[in-house]
Specification:
single chain, 77 residues, SH3 type barrels, 6-stranded antiparallel sheet
C-alpha cells in the first residue's frame, strides 16, 4: 500500500496487501461481492495472480478465487 493510486485488483502482484475502494459493476455483482466480504475499506491479500491460473485472494481469513474480469472491476489502493 505504498502507492496510493487507485488501480484494479487484477493489477496487484501476489503477496501484496491492498484496501478495497469501490466496485465498478452492476448492482448484482456489487451485492454478490459484498456478501463475500468485499466491501469498501476491507483489506485484501493477493495470493496468486499468475497467468494462466486462478486469481486467489484472502479477505477476512477466507481464501477465495475470482474471475479476472471480476477482479478488474474491483478498485483498490
Amino acid at each position: 500500500m505504498k502507492n496510493k493510486q487507485v488501480i484494479p485488483l487484477s493489477m496487484v502482484k501476489a503477496g501484496e496487501k491492498v484496501r478495497l475502494v469501490s466496485v465498478n459493476a452492476g448492482q448484482g455483482l456489487n451485492k454478490r461481492l459484498a456478501s463475500m466480504g468485499l466491501v469498501p475499506d476491507v483489506e485484501i491479500t493477493v495470493v496468486n495472480n499468475a497467468h494462466p491460473g486462478p486469481f486467489v485472494i484472502i479477505v477476512k481469513d477466507s481464501k477465495m478465487m475470482l474471475g479476472r474480469g471480476m477482479a478488474h472491476k474491483i478498485m483498490v489502493i
